[in-house]
Structure formats: structure tokens, C-alpha cells
Amino acid sequence: MKRLCFALDLIDDPELIAEYERWHQPENAWPEVTAAIKAAGILSLEIYRVENRLFMIMDTTEEFSPVEKATSDAQNPRVIAWEKLMWGFQKALASAKPGEKWIEMKRIYSLPA
Known about the structure:
Elements: E1 2-10, H1 14-23, H2 31-39, E2 42-50, E3 53-60, H3 66-73, H4 77-87, E4 90-91, E5 103-104
Antiparallel strand pairs: 1-3, 1-4, 1-5, 2-3
């Protein structure tokens, strides 16, 4: 299993942040988006927030490829619609390339067993 972590900011507006969180409640999840996540080999996905900073943890299969996931997502109308909706709440990090949203984080510490 691989663990990947990503960061992204939200637009710093309390109402938009609250709405973003509402969209991420289980009853508001789009089944097609959830299915696409699982089909890509993502076993577990959690998003945490502090202020307007988001942190996403993904546990994936060893075969998981972010490039293949992005390619598949670009052909899925529901994922495209979800991403367009979410982009209304999100703000790219300063280091993001044009069109880039979630930035993979580098692990700098792991508690020894």
C-alpha cells in the first residue's frame, strides 16, 4: 500500500468554506465520483482542514498512478462537473503550476516503530 498526501487552499471566506464542507458530507457525495476514486485504486481518502488549508491523505494500491487517474477523470463527465464545482471554493497554492490544484506533499518525518 502507498500513502500519498496533498495540500490545497480554499478561498478564505467562512461561508464558502462551510459550503465546501457541506459538499463533503457523506449524504452529498456524488456516487459516480466516489466510484471513480475507488476504481483508480484509492483504498482510503481523508481530507482535513485548518483555517483555509486542506490536507488530503490517500492510501492506495501499489499500482495506483496519479497520471492514470487524471487521464481517466478527464474523460468522466461527472468527475469533470464535480471538479468544476469544487474549483469555485478552492484556491491553488502559490507554488502550483497553471491548472494544478492538489500539490503532493513531501514526507519529512515518520515515527520509528
